[in-house]
């Protein structure tokens, strides 16, 4: 029997044997962006019955404003938000009462991308060139560290805001490289457009490794037992994704037919190894190292104690 069918059969058997059904605890999760393969563990956790298994009724909402979810959670208008580890540190600096409870994607996705047949063959070739970015945030810190790794500085490049037209601006020659390109999206998209790219990975060129996507809640919910069950369900779903990638992809695309194209299929498979297999795990050293990097780049005034913005598994 296929694993997907086994899930349904086991769920039915459980329902017939455990007696009266208890009402599931509700949780509202705000995504960081519209649905995409980065959210596969959440989609599988809901549709595969893993949230239900852990007594949860989870509603997932894609935001109209990608910057809003952490603030809405901090204000009590939702329970969990997906955000970025670097952004969380800036949000806490601003005074938002947020706590990281788990990890969705445990490696950086951001990369500096150029065209394979373009003028950028090495990082040193960036001198005097234009580098595109989408949203002003940590780009200067990232590009500064990457350039410093080859003896250059931010003054050696021209930064150009191309909004979210990263691939288009690169293919059209508007810029020579982009800093906000994702290795599981834009790098794949360029290849499908017949303009293959090359990627320089930030964590290999002066930027400490970090968790790209994380789960946060407001401080008053950091000890809420629903959070532990939420992460347990996501872990179960991630293991299913790892063991049965093709079936998980079919389930994902059945629910989101608008994403059934080659880009999203390729992106789904490229993202699989980057999902956190232990979403509740916390690498304190990794978080402290990135905080030190942000402080050195002038983004933080001091290194916050880890327990002020993140919790370890219980």
Question: Could you please describe the fold and organization of this structure?
Answer:
This protein has 314 residues and is α/β, with parallel strands linked by helices. Helix content is 38%, strand content 18%. The chain has 12 helices and 10 strands. The chain has helices spanning 3-17, 40-47, 50-53, 69-74, 85-93, 139-148, 166-171, 186-192, 225-243, 245-255, 262-271, 284-296; strands at 25-30, 56-61, 80-83, 98-105, 110-115, 130-133, 158-161, 177-182, 197-201, 213-218. The strands form 2 sheets. A 5-stranded mixed β-sheet has the order 2-1-3-10-4. A 5-stranded mixed β-sheet has the order 7-6-8-5-9, sandwiched between helices. Helix 2 crosses helix 9. It is globular and about 65 Å long. Mean pLDDT is 92; it is low at 1-21.
Which secondary structure elements does this structure contain, and how are they paired or packed?
Blueprint: H1 3-17, E1 25-30, H2 40-47, H3 50-53, E2 56-61, H4 69-74, E3 80-83, H5 85-93, E4 98-105, E5 110-115, E6 130-133, H6 139-148, E7 158-161, H7 166-171, E8 177-182, H8 186-192, E9 197-201, E10 213-218, H9 225-243, H10 245-255, H11 262-271, H12 284-296
Parallel strand pairs: 1-2, 1-3, 6-7, 6-8
Antiparallel strand pairs: 3-10, 4-10, 5-8, 5-9
Helix pairs in contact: 2-9, 2-10, 9-10
